[in-house]
Amino acid sequence: MVTTAFHTEFAVPVAGGSLIVAVAGPGEPGTAPLVLGVHGITGSHRMLAVLARQLAARDITFLVPDLRGRGASAGLPGPYGLDAHVADLVAVLGYWGADRAVLAGHSMGAYVVARLAAAHPGRAAGVVLIDGGLSLSVPPDSDTDAVLAAVLGPALARLRMKFASLADYRDFWRRHPAFANRWNSDVAGYVDYDLAGPPGALRSTVVEAAVRADGRELLDSAAAWEAVAAVPEPVVLLRAPRGLADEPKPLLSEAVVDEAKRTVPGMRDVLVDDTNHYLIVLGDREAATVAGEIARVTASVEWIVAFPATGE
Fold this sequence. Notes:
Layout: E1 8-14, E2 17-24, E3 34-38, H1 49-56, E4 61-65, H2 82-96, E5 101-106, H3 108-119, E6 124-130, H4 144-152, H5 154-157, H6 166-174, H7 185-193, E7 195-196, E8 203-204, H8 208-218, H9 221-230, E9 235-239, H10 254-263, E10 268-271, H11 279-282, H12 284-299
Parallel strand pairs: 3-4, 3-5, 5-6, 6-9, 9-10
Antiparallel strand pairs: 1-2, 2-4, 7-8
């Protein structure tokens, strides 16, 4: 049976409709340290379900939206792009009645929280970048679609695929090298949540146009460096030694990480051993390390929170 630590969802008014946000941990605003989590480019809030369980056990409130064009927020229209996500996240904090939160993003989510913290430093009680957020060192004349296909591989290809059943979709994901010998109920929950449509023609809820629009900005190295340089401390970078397909080449190269540490001298750099880009948040061992680092940041913050929800 697939279960999740997310116990509540709420809808936040944003441009074009409502953004759906899942809640784990203490469910009343102002009662606990607050972490705003952001998933990756073809993900949903369920990508962070293991992390949600770990943080809830530490009495930390964890809010994770389905980003515009994904999951239960798939119906939100464009324009897409990282700045649109930033505006949506600011709306989430306002709806919850919070002046700030620890911002934790995985993959593309790390680039989004870096931009949010750079544009609204008062909103960031701390920033945790999980295998993302740094320049991907893509040459400026590269073909964006080709680069996205090379980086995302089957995660991007599946957006145009149709599946006869949930079992077929699970089988598709079971063959993904990132999950070889590591399939579990949390991975199944993430996969199941992603699927929608009529029997015989099921497909991912992720909107391809949103992925491509976001991806073009994600590959803007200059913008990534500009955001990271402006992120207020404390800043933690957690990274995986293996990539999206469990290949030995990580998403973030050592050269890029070294440059980031020169750019942000106070950045804490944590290499999570023996994992890949997906399992750094979907593996119990790995998520415990990530949650520990997030808890370290929340413990360093003086939380003055007594705000009512502002959802009227």
